[in-house]
Amino acid sequence: MNRAMERRRNIGISAHIDSGKTTLTERILYYCKKIHRIHEVKGKEGGGATMDYMELERERGITITSATTNVTWNDYSINIIDTPGHVDFTIEVERSLRVLDGAILVLCSVGGVQSQTLTVDKQLKRYRIPCLAFINKLDRIGANPFKVKDQINEKLGRRAALLQIPIGLEDKFQGVVDLVKMKALYFDGPNGEIVREEEIPAELEDKAWQSREELLDTVSLFSDELTAAVLEDRVTEELLLKAIRKGTISREFTPIFLGSAYRNKGVQPLLDSVVNFLPDPSEVENIALNLDQNEKKILLKANSNAPCVSYAFKLEDGPYGQLTYLRIYQGSIKKGDELFNTRSKQKFKVGRVVRMHADHMEDIEGAGTGDIIALFGVDCASGDTICSPGLNYAMTSIYVPEPVISLAIEPADKTSTDRLARALARFIKEDPTFRMYIDPESKQTIIQGMGELHLDVYIERMKREYRVEVTTGRPQVAYRETITTRADFDYTHKKQTGGAGQFGRVMGYIEPFEGTYEFINKVKGGHIPREFISSCDKGFQASLRKGQLIASPVIGLRVVLTDGQFHPVDSSDIAFQLAAQGAFKQTYKKARPQILEPIMKVVVESPSEFSGNVFGSLIQRRGIIVSSIEDGIYSRIEAEVPLSEMFGYSTVLRSMTQGKAEFTMEFLKYGKVPANVAEQLREEQRKKLEAEEKK
Amino acid sequence: MVRKTLSARSPIKMMEKNISGGFGPGNLGVFASRKGVGKTACLVQIALDRLFEEKPVIHVSYASRVDYIISWYKEIFKNLATQQNLQSAMEVHDRIIRNRVIMNFRQEGMKTEQVTKSLEALLGPGNFRAKTIIVDGFNFYLPWAEDLALFKKFASEHQVEFWFSCSLKGEDPLFNEQGIPFILQDYLSSIDVIITLEHDNSHVKLNLVKDHDRISNKKLRLQLDPQTLLLAKI
Fold it and tell me: Containing domain of residue A357, as a range?
C-alpha cells in the first residue's frame, strides 16, 4: 500500500485563460495512452478537447467545470484535475486545490504572468500547494521564456529557475535542452510521441552552461550536499534531482519547464517532472478537526488501513443520479463499506465506486489513501466530510468568496417553474458561490454569483440541461450601508396592554468599526440581566439586515452597550430585542450613515495601441487607474471601478480593441458612493416604498 | 482645508521659489546623486505636493515594481502626516492617490516614442489631466538617453512638467567644476533645472546647479532627513 502511495500523484493544472491548459491535458492523456486521438480546443474537427466535456465548454472554447481523470505514466498513477482560469469560476479552482497535492502552473510564453495567473498563484499559496511552472506556446510569435521566468520571480515573488532552455523559438522552436542531464531533447513522430536525446547544439552550449549554473546556485540553497558537490565540481544527476524535489515540495523553489503543447513538444519531460518533483500523498500533511473534542486538530495518517476520512469536493447530477467526487485522506473505501457523513449525521452503504475520466467511468472495487474516486447515490453536499463510523471529523471548509452580483430571473413559460427549481437546487448544491433566494417583497427569484459570466453560464445551462428559458432583470449590485461617526442611544421599549407587559431599556453607542459587526457588553451591576444581553445583540443584528437609507445590509458597525434597565416581570428576551431595534432606529441617522458600493479590481490586458481607449473607458466608468505596466507590446492596466459601472463592459472592450483585449474583475472592497449616485439610489428606494404603500 | 494647509507648508514650494526661472508646464528638471541618497524621496514629495492640491500626477517608473512605488508613497505620506499631525490620515491618503497613475516600463528595448505614446494615450483619450510627470529610474548611461530631447518636446507640446531622477555611477569625480554631473553635460539643452543631492553629516543637502540658462551651484536652504525621508527647510 505504501508503495502504491509513493507512486501516486494528485495534481491540478491552473492558469490564466487561454494559456493552453486544456490542450496540455489533452496531450498528457494522449501520451499516457488514455486517448488515441488528439482533439483541439474549440473543436475544429467537430469534437472538442477531451477534458472540455460539457457542451457549453466546447462551444465557448472555455473550461467551465472541473473534470478529473486518471492516467498512468511510467508506473505512476496520476489524478489530474483540469480547472478553469476565469475568475468567475474561482470556486472550482479553490475546490480542486483543496484536494490536490501538487499543481502545474501554465503560463503563455508571450503573455507571461497575467491577471488570473496572480489569482491562481495566490490560491496555490493559500493552500500550500507545491507547483511546477510550464511556459507554453513557445511556437508563438513574441515567445520569450526568459522574460516569463523573470516575471515568475518578480511578480509572483517565487524563487524559480529554468530546468530547460529552448532550442529555437517561434516558428523555429524545435525542442529543449535539459539542464539536469545536459542533453538536447527533440520530439519526433506525427504527434511528438518519440523523445530523442542528442548532444546540445554547439551554439547553445554557453547558454546551457550559464543557465545550469543559475539553476545550481538557486537549488543549492536547499541542499548542503549539493552545495558541497558544486564546490567540488562533482554534481550528479541524482543529487540535483533530489535537491530540486526537496525545494519544490517545501515550496521554496519552483522549477520551470518549457514547451508547446499544441506542437507536441515538451510534455513528456513535464510528466517526468510531476513524478520526480511533486509530492505523493504521504508527503503532504493533512489536518482534520475532531468535532467531538471542540474541533481539536488531528493529523491524518497516510495509511490505507486506518479508519477512513475523506472529503466530498465535487457533486454532479448525471443520468444515473448524483455523483460525488471524494478525496481519501486516510484509510480506504470499497464497495459495501459503511460510511458516515459528519455534517448530516447520516450513515450510508457504499454502492458503486468509480474512477473518472472526464465523462467516462471505470468501475473499481475500492481505493486507498491519497486517491480520488467518485461514488453513486450518496446524499451529501459539496464540502462534506465522510468518515468511517466512530469518527466525527470535519476537514477545514474551503474559503468561499461572497457573491457580488445578483439578478432577478423568471421562467419565460410558467409551466417550466418546476424545472427551474430543480436546476437551481442542483447548481446551488454544486457551487457554494452560486446562491438563490426569493425576494420577500417582490417575490422574485434572485440568483447571485461572482460575475456576469458566472450567471450567464448558469442561465445557459438552465436552457440546455433543463429546457428552461428565463427572462432576467437588470443585474443588481450588492450595496451596503455604514455609519461614519459615533452616536449615542438611550431607548426604552415599554408596552402595557392589560396582560403581561414588555419592558427593556438600553443605553450605549454605535460607532464605525473596521470589520463587519461587533457587539461589546459593558453593562455593570446587572442593570441588564445576563440572559438578556444576547437578546440585545440579536436585536441589533436584526436591525442590520436593512439600513434606513436604501434598505441595504449595514456593515462596519460596533455596538457598545453601557447601561440599561429591566423590569422584574415585564422584561423578556423579546422586550430587549425590540429595545435594541428601537435604539438602532433612533440612532442610526445620527451616526451619519452613508451608502457603499462594491468596488472591483479590474485588470485589462490590451495591445498598447488601444491603451488610450481603455484608459478612457475606465475613467468614464468612475474608475481610478491605479497603474499601467507596459512592455512595448501589451499594456496591463489595473483600475478600481464600481461594479455598477461594469455591466456590459466585455462587449465595449471587445469592440474598442478589435477583440484583442481581455479583462478580469474581482471584488476589492466596499467604497462610498458619490453624492449624486446616493441621491439616485435613495430616490429609487422612495419610489419603491411609495409603490408598495399603494398596493 | 487640511490639504491646502499641507500644500502651503510644503518645502517643495520653497524649492520652486528658489528657482529663479520658476518651474512649471514645459519644464524638465532632474535630481542627481549616487544611488540611495534620496532622489526618489524628493520626486515622491513633489508628486504628493501636487496631489495635495488635487492636481493629477503620472508616476513613470523604469526601475521598480508598482507595489514598491505604492509603498514609497504610503511611507512618505505617513511620515508627513505624523509630522503635520494630520487627522484621518489614511482617509486623506486614499482620497489623494486617486489622482495618481503609475506607469511602469522596462527601459531595455523600450523606445521613448513608445513611452510618450502611452503618456499621450492617458492624457488624451484617457482624459487624465495630469500636469506633472515624475520619471524615476531613467538610465542616463544608456545610448538612448538622447531621447531626453523628446521628453522636453513632449513637455512643451502638452504643457506638462517633468521631474527625473538620475543615478550617478562610477568613480569620483562625478561632477565638473561647475557642479554639473558629467553624464548630464550633453543634455543641458533639454534640461531646465538640475538639483544635486549630497551627504553632509547627518542630512542630505540640495544644490541647485542649473537654473534654466544659469549655471548656479546655489545651496538650497533645504535638506532631506534620511530617517523620515522628508524635505525640510534649513
Answer: 287-395
How far is the C-alpha of A375 from the C-alpha of B225, rounded, in Å? 68
On whether both A387 and A536 belong to a single domain, the answer is no
A227 touches chain B (CB under 8 A): no
Higher pLDDT, B110 or A268: A268
Cell of A629: 505596466
H or E segment and range at residue B194: strand B193-200
Across the interface, whether the CB atoms of B102 and A632 are under 8 A apart is answered: no
Q: Are residues A205 and A93 in the same domain?
A: yes
Q: Which helix (H) or strand (E) holds B210?
A: strand B203-211
Q: Are B223 and B232 in contact (CB under 8 A)?
A: yes
Does residue B6 carry a pLDDT above 70?
no
Residue A693 lies in a domain: no
Q: How near does any CA of chain A get to the CA of B176, in Å? A: 36
pLDDT tens, residue by residue, A35-86: 777 765 544 344 555 555 455 555 444 444 445 788 889 999 998 875 655 5
Residues of A in contact with B120 (CB under 8 A): 612
Task: Please judge whether B101 and A611 are an interchain contact, meaning their C-beta atoms are less than 8 angstroms apart.
Answer: no
What are B82-122's pLDDT values in tens digits?
Answer: 888 888 888 888 889 999 999 998 756 678 888 999 999 99
Going by C-alpha positions, the residue among A166, A179, A104 that lies closest to residue A138 is A166
Co-location of A472 and A530 in the same domain: no
Q: How far apart are CA A665 and CA A654, in angstroms?
A: 15
- A269 plus A326 within the same structural domain: no
> Would strands A385-387 and A309-318 be described as parallel, antiparallel, or unpaired?
antiparallel
pLDDT in tens, A85-114: 554 455 666 667 778 899 999 999 998 988
Q: How many domains would you assign to chain A?
A: 5
Residue that is written with C-alpha cell 449595514 in the block? A554
Within 8 A by CB and 6+ apart from A145, the residues are: A109, A135, A138, A162, A165, A166, A169, A256, A258
Work out the number of other CB atoms within 10 angstroms of the CB of residue A64: 22
| Domains recognised in chain B with CATH numbers | 2-233 (3.40.50.300)
> Are A489 and A544 found together in one domain?
yes
SS3 of A416-432: the string is HHHHHHHHHHHHHHHCC
What does the pLDDT look like over A313-363, one tens digit per residue?
887 776 667 888 899 999 999 999 999 999 888 999 998 898 876 557 788
Predicted pLDDT of residue A66: 47
Half-sphere exposure of B196 (CA within 13 A, CB side): 24
pLDDT at A64 (0 to 100): 42
Domain boundary among A283, A317, A351: A283
For the record, the C-alpha cell of A342 comes out as: 459528519
Residue where a domain terminates, one of A538, A563, A591: A591
Distance from A94 to chain B by nearest Cα, in Å?
A: 26
Alpha-carbon torsion A468, A469, A474, A475, what sign? positive
In this complex, which of A608, A612, A627 lies closest to B104 when CB atoms are compared?
Answer: A627
* Whole-structure pTM value: 0.65
Q: Kindly state whether residues A173 and A304 are assigned to the same domain.
A: no
Q: Which amino acid is at A585?
A: K
**Scanning every residue of chain B, which has its alpha carbon at the shortest distance from the alpha carbon of A153?**
B65
C-alpha cell at B70: 505604492
Please, what is the average pLDDT of chain A?
87
Q: B28-34 and B193-200 as β-strands: parallel, antiparallel, unpaired?
A: parallel
Q: Which residues pair with A519 in a beta bridge?
A: A559
Residue A506 inside a domain? The answer is: yes
Report, in angstroms and rounded to the nearest whole number, the Rg of chain B calculated over CA atoms. 17
**ipTM at complex level:** 0.87
Whether residue A82 sits in one domain with residue A144: yes
Instruction: For chain B, list residues whose CB is within 8 angstroms of any CB belonging to chain A.
Output: 65-66, 98, 101-106, 109-111, 114-115, 117-118, 120-122, 124-128
The predicted structure's pLDDT at residue B168: 94
Give the pLDDT confidence score for residue A178 in this predicted structure.
Answer: 97
Phi, psi of A459 (to 5 degrees): -65, -40
Q: What is the arithmetic mean of pLDDT over A453-467?
A: 85
